[in-house]
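Recall from the previous chapter that SMILES is a line notation for molecules. Here it describes NAP.
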Amino acid sequence: MHAIILKNPGEPEVLTWSQVLDLIPAPEQLLVRVKAAGLNRVDLLQRRGKYPPPPGESPILGLEIAGEVAAMGKDVTHYQVGDRVFGLVGSGGYAEYGVIDAKTAMLIPNELSYIEAAAIPEAFLTANEAIFTLGELKAGETILIHAGASGVGSAGIQLAKQAGAVVFTTVSSSEKMQKVAALQPTAIFNYKNQDFVTEIQTRTQHQGVNVILDFIGGSYLTRNMESLSAAGRLICVGLMGGATAEINLDVLLKKRLQIKGLIMRTRSLEDKRRMAEHFKTKWLPLIANRQIKPIIDSVFALKDASKAHAYMEKNIHVGKIVLEI
Ligand SMILES: NC(=O)c1ccc[n+]([C@@H]2O[C@H](COP(=O)([O-])OP(=O)(O)OC[C@H]3O[C@@H](n4cnc5c(N)ncnc54)[C@H](OP(=O)(O)O)[C@@H]3O)[C@@H](O)[C@H]2O)c1
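With both inputs in hand, we obtain:
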């Protein structure tokens, strides 16, 4: 089969379309003829050699796939060749074929295309795990979702709204603000010319928000803590603004804050199966009937993965960038 491979870490041009060894599914896996694969921010880090795949995973990039079942391991009973499936993979999405654990895979609802399905797993499963499992967001509570134009952010806004929360979000430009407005958060702040701490204090009558979904990390820690309410929960899923920061524990104690972290990729197979099962029951029906939508910014041919990476690095996209075959 062919795949996008990475001979040496570096700029987008290091991604090349090459012949690689064919895959054989393990007993509990599906072999999937990939039709579309989602691009994720961490793919850029992996390309630069800063985010190696977990032990045992393929060195081929790509964390989510949608496609057609081509073959099955001997212990798989509930799928047939030709079924349309999608889901999270530990690695290996940028290829003509991928393998996925059969219990982590989900059937694509008839209403969704392969491209839409490939845009769902990382963004929506991450947002669901962060906001609800870790953040314990409840109806009527308030949440600040940073990077509202990101794949995960655009998913999180929709899930939080659907759950009956008041949703605030941040973006870096008026163009992104216009597009994110279509998701109908309660308010959007352009962090280039608005101070989100002041805005949150004003909008919450100085109570702060119950939950923050954060991708920025170090450079936002103090301001995030200032923006939280008493017993607020800060869920850290990305470190785009650095990994280290000084923390004022006095604020943590007095406000009884919780700070929690999440990495999806290294979660156990059991956890990934649980997350997929939960997602399938709770959110997939709402996606199938279009109450919630994967936001697709653009689609590139898989062979042009280098162009897709260069485009993501420009930071002008809103929602997901998808590769198709
Ligand atoms: N922990 C996990 O398991 C997990 C899983 C999936 C994703 N993530 C994390 O979630 C975040 C979003 O991922 P994604 O794939 O959805 O990304 P994405 O679509 O590429 O969006 C990233 C957005 O972050 C904003 N941003 C803020 N500060 C930035 C900076 N210093 N550099 C670049 N962008 C910056 C940008 O929007 P503005 O221009 O509006 O600022 C950008 O559009 C990433 O940090 C990723 O690592 C974590």
